[in-house]
Protein: DNA-binding MarR family transcriptional regulator
Amino acid sequence: MQNKVNVAPAGGESLLFLTDDQLRRGIEAMFFAYRAFTADPDLILAELDYGRAHHRAIHFINREPGLTVTALLDVLGVTKQSLNRVLRTLIEEGLVESRIGRRDRRERQLYLTDKGAALERRLSEAQRARMRAAYRAAGPQAVAGFRQVLEAMMDRDTLRQYRALKELPETP
Amino acid sequence: MQNKVNVAPAGGESLLFLTDDQLRRGIEAMFFAYRAFTADPDLILAELDYGRAHHRAIHFINREPGLTVTALLDVLGVTKQSLNRVLRTLIEEGLVESRIGRRDRRERQLYLTDKGAALERRLSEAQRARMRAAYRAAGPQAVAGFRQVLEAMMDRDTLRQYRALKELPETP
DNA sequence: TTATTACGTCAGACTTGTTGACTTTCCAAC
DNA sequence: GTTGGAAAGTCAACAAGTCTGACGTAATAA
Structure:
């Protein structure tokens, strides 16, 4: 199954970056980097007895205040039973508010409370700090490549969801 | 907490890529891409009643045949109790062989059996296929940036582990 | 001889995920 | 208005994978 692409290709440009060995390095880089990527928020969460699932919910509620449970389910890709448990604790502990939908009263629209927003800032600032350092070290061109490869890795549906996320206004 | 870096910097080059918004896009790209990244192996694993933990163990045993349990523990960053359960099933089902260490008989050296190696190939080929498509779509320069950013995201220790992984000889 | 290391194992817990079944609420179409 | 079906929520049961803590055994190192 070894790909024999590590020779001079027709176009003239090198395809050495497509060897199985290079691909494996990329796979390992993803594994290690993802672990590092979640490490900082995980520390904060553990201290408050929350988990990554809480972080993800908080992140996307912040990202699109008022989104419905179904929409959140869709983005997270989990079952409603699984999300429900997480969401319930967040609501009970006053981080998230669930309002009955205006146009459709069956729907629940989700909002962060001030307390929830405070935790969101704490978590995302920790995560951004690492990202910022990495971006700064690698430089703008590397960052563009990083984003390109990640996007090329997503399924069509995931990419659509990713692209559909609104720009957040810069907090003034 | 908003970073005011989105203005013309001293060096002359734009620092727009360091805005909080850009960082958040990167964070979300990591989240979605990682999910896609694990999706293909997950399907194969589910069918055989294994999980991601089995995949990770198999991956690194294949990567460095004969490595000890402690070394594997170190790479994976989990407790021995957690690894033990996974390892035990892999040994019981004949995917991994555990041999008593030659220089130190307390150690167990881990090897994939033929059956284990076959699963490893199946899993990693699925994962590589997605990676290969992404790499091909994004191009060599983007790939270089991708790797640069991921490496810059790792802690020092993780980066050391990542770099210590041997090159595997290309299967002839 | 003793202390330490490497490994395995047992027990108990927690988070996050799953299926399946059921109820409540509500909109919309008939 | 009644009814069908969608959206949301709930309950129960379970599994994977993680953790901590405690203990035992074998082998090496001091």
